[in-house]
Structure formats: structure tokens, C-alpha cells
Design goal:
Length: about 110
């Protein structure tokens, strides 16, 4: 039962999961649990939400295309049926723009 969840039990769960999955996954699972506990308190099932400490999330992964990978990507884009794909990929590679930034771009002529 949710009322039997204590800081100690949550910490035991965290320690067990850390050996099975990444710290990032454990943080996500604990976030969902914390949200559920807050809802339980809001709905009157709990008087207080147990404190939780989250493991430190690792820094995001940085990976860059090799020259060979980039060449193959651009060649594939050039032969694509989509006439805009090559331009979009070249823009993305050179600016680091994300998908949403590319898709929401608008043309504003200079006056």
C-alpha cells in the first residue's frame, strides 16, 4: 500500500535499480513516483510525501558525425525524393539547430 512507502523503502528501491539501469532512468522513475505520491496526498491518501533524493543525472551524450558519416548522410539526402532535405540537413549540421527550430522557421525579408 502507498501508505507504507517510506524514505527508507524508496532509498532501497533506488539502490536496487541503480545496479540494473542508468541513473537517468532511476531519476525518471523516481519523478513518476514522486508525482504519484503528491497526488495521493492531494486526494487524502497520505498526510505527507516522503522525502526523496535523486541520483545525479549524467551529462548529456555528445557525439559528432565522422567525415565519412557526414559524406554518406549528405549523399543520401541529395538522392532523396524530398527536394528540401539536403538544404535542411546542411543547415542543421552547420548551425546545430534542432528539429523544432528548423520546422518553425519563417521567412522575414529585409526591408
Amino acid at each position: 500500500p502507498i501508505r507504507h512507502l517510506t524514505e527508507e523503502r524508496i532509498a532501497q528501491y533506488e539502490a536496487a535499480r541503480i545496479g540494473e539501469v542508468s541513473p537517468y532512468t532511476v531519476c525518471n522513475e523516481l519523478s513518476v513516483l514522486r508525482h504519484a505520491l503528491h497526488l495521493a496526498r492531494k486526494w487524502g491518501y497520505l498526510e505527507r510525501v516522503p522525502a526523496m533524493e535523486f541520483p545525479k543525472k549524467p551529462e548529456g551524450r555528445k557525439r559528432y558525425l565522422t567525415e565519412e558519416e557526414l559524406t554518406r548522410l549528405l549523399e543520401a539526402c541529395a538522392t532523396s525524393r524530398n527536394p528540401y532535405l539536403l538544404a535542411i540537413v546542411v543547415l542543421t549540421v552547420n548551425t546545430g539547430m534542432r528539429k523544432r527550430e528548423i520546422l518553425t522557421m519563417t521567412w522575414e525579408p529585409w526591408i
